[in-house]
Specification:
Layout: H1 3-32, H2 38-51, H3 53-64
Helix pairs in contact: 1-3
């Protein structure tokens, strides 16, 4: 697979993943955070704001790996 195609696939998957993740994280926050303390909300948003990068970080080496 050519590097350009891999980068295109990775870009599309990244955008799709972020949209799905944001909808899920915001919906989940709306369910659990209305009566939470400020530090619980802060912890949730800190963790949710960091976890989105894990799948993308696993995909980046594949995107930039040279084809054989």
């Amino acid at each position: 697979m050519s590097p350009g195609v891999k980068k295109l696939i990775g870009t599309v998957l990244t955008v799709v993943w972020l949209v799905i993740y944001v909808v899920f994280a915001a919906g989940f926050a709306r369910l659990i955070l209305p009566h939470a303390t400020w530090y619980a909300a802060f912890a949730y948003y800190a963790i949710a704001g960091t976890l989105w990068i894990v799948p993308i970080g696993l995909m980046l080496p594949w995107m930039y790996r040279e084809s054989r």
